[in-house]
Amino acid sequence: MKVEKIQIAGKEVMPFTIPSGIVTTSAQSLEKLAREIPELGIITTKSIGPEPRVGNREPIFSQYAPGSFVNAVGLTNPGCEKFARELSHINFPSDKFLLASIFGGNADEFVYVARTLEEHVDGFELNLSCPHAKGYGMQLGQDPNLVYEITHAVVRNVKIPVFAKLTPNASNIGEIAKAAVNAGAYGIVAINTVGPGCHMIDGYEVLTNKVGGLSGKGITPIGVKCVRDIRQAVGENIPIIGMGGIFNFNDVRAYAKAGANVFGIGSALAGMDDRDIKDYFVALVYDIRQGTNLAEERLKKVDMNYRKVKVEEIVNPDCNFKVVKTNERLESKPGQFVFAWIPGVGEKPFSIMDDSPLTLGVLERGYFTRHFNSLKVGDEFYVRGPHGRSVEVPNGSNVVLVGGGCGIAGLYLLAKRLSEKTYVVSLLGAKDREHLLYVERFSRFGDVKIVTEDGSLGRKGTIADLLRVAKIPTGSYFFNCGPRAMVEAVLPLEMQVSGGEKIYSSVDYMTRCGVGICGSCANEKGLRTCVEGPFMSAE
User: Are strands 187-190 and 162-165 parallel, antiparallel or unpaired?
Assistant: First the structure.
């Protein structure tokens, strides 16, 4: 089998993409991977609609079997006008094809989104296939007449190629594909997730939406069959982007034989950082050309299994910042995090404050943390993880831990572990003494300096004030954990002491899946902090 570029509207591009809603969901991340991964010829955006949508409450993504997932993101997006502004600020490579996935509740909404984005993209993917968002996607894409109407309306109003993304949840997918082509579609994308399905743990639906689309290894045969049926219906001249459970060379070959020209790879990237993804695509192309199976070896073993834990002790029970100790040990590395899940309520990520026993520091902020902080001793909840990268420094280094508010919870395990081989100074701050926890425990692992905004404990002021008067050795390593404003205030001061390669910060990015798939935690550099961090280098 050969790997050849495909011609799409005047551009010759490599025949690989990442499906909509996976990894490249921010403007910065899609630009970054477009520049760094030559094998990705088509870059697909998340699905963008006419108005912003918050989407579903977490959990939105779960693993029901190795390499197999269920998701119900809920078409989360900033709305087409804001996304157009975001795209206008990136410098997308001219030799790549930017495919904007769009959705709407009717033809007029699809047209509005397309017109809003047209000047910033190379083509459109019409999302006619989302299986779990009421009024959108699959409910439109199962009707050939509606598919024709929507496709024809968009084609008539834009001057760039239009692809129709079809659902496998239709017995007549060939007929639907033919309707899209008859309406002027340039090509077909197949398939979206299968279902919806329901994944349960101990009798509880994992997804807050209760049901979601199935992806990964379990749907490969369905995707191959759908592509075959579409190819037979539309003939040989219509480009087909095939996807659904592609993990290795054999999967690519199966889709190619079924009639796909381009191959979308999504679930296989679970757990991979950007370097891993780059190495994976290099290996996959090599496999296709040489008949080897090196890409399979680069897949990550993703553990999203939940385990039940019991509340053993609550520290600071009368404050909105509590420390919850469980009855279980969870072997972890400093810097990692877990998701806490309360069935029927939701889940959120938390730094691992300690792992023996598993201990979490939780500041009450919203719906989930309010419920979590209402747990009593003896109550049970679930955790998954640990997720994220650990932090490491050379033996004998000077380490400065800088924590503000609930960010202190993200530093205690670092102090405990790093003190075994380094000299640790902890600079801890909060608005008052009530919100400064574990001060005595931190002091077991090195020097501790305290600041509060009201002066009720330690110096009066901010962490930045404390850092200005602290005597920090040149070349020290810094680990910052706290609000973005705190991190932005201390970074310039730390840069006077050390280079950016020795300064790491963990700020509160939206983290929804924990394994790099949803891309919601991408920072301003396009890096997904759940797999690249959470402690990110200032370099």
Answer: parallel
Q: How many CA atoms lie within 13 A of 168 on its CB side?
A: 24
What ranges do the domains of the chain cover?
6-297, 307-387, 398-508
Q: CATH number for the 398-508 domain, one of 3.40.190.10, 3.40.50.80, 3.40.920.10, 3.40.50.720?
A: 3.40.50.80
Range list of β-strands (E), 327-422: 337-342, 346-351, 354-355, 358-363, 380-387, 398-404
Dist. CA 335–CA 353, nearest whole Å: 9
pLDDT score at 404: 95
pLDDT confidence tier of residue 137, bands split at 50, 70 and 90:
low
Asked whether the predicted pLDDT for residue 153 surpasses 60, the reply is yes
- What are the Cα distances from residue 44, in Å, to 96, 143, 267, 306? 11, 25, 15, 31
- Domain 307-387 fold is Elongation Factor Tu (Ef-tu); domain 3 (2.40.30)
- Asked if 337 and 385 count as a contact pair (C-beta separation under 8 A), the reply is yes
Cβ atoms of 147 and 177 closer than 8 Å: no
Q: What pLDDT is attached to residue 509?
A: 77
At 98 the pLDDT is: 98
Kindly report, residue by residue over 319-373, the tens digit of the pLDDT: 999 999 999 999 999 999 999 999 999 999 999 999 999 999 999 999 999 999 9
Catalytic residue among 80, 130, 518, 521: 130
Query: What integer best gives the mean pLDDT of the chain?
Result: 96
Where does the pLDDT of residue 142 fall: very low under 50, low under 70, confident under 90, or very high at 90 and above? confident
Q: Do domains 6-297 and 398-508 have the same CATH topology?
A: no
**Residue 312: enclosing H or E segment and its boundaries?**
strand 307-315
Active site annotation includes 513: no
Residue 486 CA to its chain's centroid (Å): 24
Q: Which residue has the tokens 């705190």?
A: 486
Q: How confident is the model at residue 510 (pLDDT cuts 50, 70, 90)?
A: confident
pTM: 0.96
Element (H, E) at 326: strand 321-326
6-297, CATH topology level? TIM Barrel (3.20.20)
